Q: What sequence folds into this?
């Protein structure tokens, strides 16, 4: 899907299954191409938010950490936009 969209515009993306590997590979291309790939990947991640499932036990862990006065930090390899959309849709520990 992603490769097809870019091939139609004359770009060849790196061969990889992991979207992050594809994005990393675009760093060798122009800034415009890299930015375009990032926009498409973010769009696809935002679409995936609707079907995303929480990590088993994560909500309970966050809730218990909060109740015991601990700070909680959440790290993701997804785009900031997708990460925020997921947290709005499924706030952990509530």
A:
């Amino acid at each position: 899907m992603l490769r097809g969209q870019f091939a139609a515009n004359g770009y060849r993306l790196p061969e990889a299954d992991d979207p992050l590997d594809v994005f990393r590979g675009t760093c060798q291309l122009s800034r415009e191409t890299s930015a375009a790939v990032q926009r498409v990947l973010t769009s696809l991640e935002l679409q995936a938010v609707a079907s995303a499932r929480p990590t088993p036990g994560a909500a309970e862990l966050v809730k218990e950490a909060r109740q015991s006065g601990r700070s909680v930090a959440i790290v993701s390899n997804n785009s900031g936009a997708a990460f925020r959309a997921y947290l709005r849709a499924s706030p952990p520990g509530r």
User: Anything to note?
Assistant: The chain has one domain: 2-89. The mean pLDDT is 82. The first helix runs from residue 2 to 7.
